[in-house]
């Protein structure tokens, strides 16, 4: 793979790549739409990801090329001109990271040629954008010897997404991608950024990611809408409760104070975030106690809450999950990521995985009219130089 990419670099830039970097994608097992509400999430890095090959330049040009968008060719941009430009399309993600680095006083005085190649299915909700952001951060740190921790890079990448790309996302994706570890999921408290690794030993079961193949159109504006609905609910609760984030309260406190939230839709959004946060903690405990069955039940409840209260699923995700629930060997299944299309994550007993893929695939195609794609997920390490 790496040799193929090096040949590609030579073909595109007519010179040899000096260094190779990689950042994974991520799949979230449970804890959805809690990360901008101060709650817990439980994602892991996967072995699909984004490769970046670079060669430093002596002038002030940065040249960007992605093998995934070869029709857009090489884009040449001056270091001093990192402002957002719609025409730069995908390159706005790495540009955004460079912009954040520069705004934080980091001096990038000479440019580089960079080639990206990603094998995360695009638009599938497995964080291809956070992956390209974090890999860019790791490249910059290495090229210019910046004194930054991985968590700094994670924060800068999130900032690029929030302030440059304009998606008001939480920190989960960039964190999982930067800090992931092979065979481990990360329980991250997004309020304090305290985290712990949890071994994923599923005792004869696998994590299956199913892609609805529905592109996440309009997802970004809907995402920002959910976020502001949660903020409205929080403001209403703050009229009586001393809290800074929704997930600081548990289910009981929420039920006792729900009446403070004036808008019924906002109340349901808050309910999801608060219950989902508690479910995440229960799910991690269940895993520690080797109670995979309970873990699966909590995944199913998470989906129902995302479907009914948070309303971020849609017919494709619901169909895929509801078919999965009926299949033998399925321990749990839910949508993963932002929603509105993208992927589901299921835990399936190993001996049933082949049948699962065949039967869920057939029924989905009959109902929705096009195919889903399935991947048995491998949990890999976080972003790094190769
Ligand atoms: C997207 C965002 C994350 C998180 C999830 C939902 O992936 O980038 O920050 O909010 O949606 O859990």
Please tell me about this protein's structure.
The protein is of the alpha+beta class and 386 residues long. The protein has a domain at 2-198: 2-Layer Sandwich (Ribosomal Protein S5, domain 2), CATH 3.30.230. Helices cover 42% and strands 21% of the residues. It has a six-stranded mixed sheet with strand order 5-4-6-3-1-13, with helices on both faces. Strands 10-11-9-12 form a four-stranded antiparallel sheet. The chain has a three-stranded antiparallel sheet with strand order 2-7-8, with helices on both faces. The model has no long low-confidence stretch (mean pLDDT 96). The site of alpha-D-galactopyranose has 10 residues, from helix 5. InterPro entries: Galactokinase (IPR000705), Galactokinase_bac (IPR022963), Galactokinase_CS (IPR019741), GalKase_N (IPR019539), GHMP_kinase_C_dom (IPR013750), GHMP_kinase_C_sf (IPR036554), GHMP_kinase_N_dom (IPR006204), GHMP_knse_ATP-bd_CS (IPR006203). It comes from Clostridium estertheticum subsp. estertheticum. It is an enzyme of class 2 (transferase). The record marks 26 as: Transition state stabilizer.
